[in-house]
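Study the following:
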Amino acid sequence: MKIQIGQKAPDFKLVDSERKERKLSEFEGSNVVLLFVPAAFSGACTAEMCDMRDNLSFYKKLDAQILVISTDTFFTLKKWRDELKVDFVMLSDYNKEICGLYGAQYDEWITGMKGPAKRASFVIDREGIVRYVEVLESAGDPINFDGVKAALSAVGSPA
């Protein structure tokens, strides 16, 4: 499936790093930056999380919740989240269902791994409509943070 700008974001249910079941729909009423990352603790993914952490005030100003999805276990995501001291939701798609739903999944990745998440970013507005899509083929390429920020700025903060 390929997610398109202007469509309703597909809802999902995943377990977070604290073992709590979370749904995308619970964040309706806030903007959402939805990030897919290939592997916790890898260099590029860690740099991406640090960038989000270091710019969190920008995202909060625009009423944006940051949700990170990885095919790593919730145990791994908890350790990663704690080490990075990030204050956003990390979700485990261990069964590799949501990455595919969002078109953000490798068939095969490095060393023959099957089905990890591609590096991808989506901006979803308060009503659940997709306003920005970026799915990268190379896991080493960085997210276009300027594109994410521009899309968020366009939907703005609540009145």
Remarks:
- The longest helix spans residues 43-54.
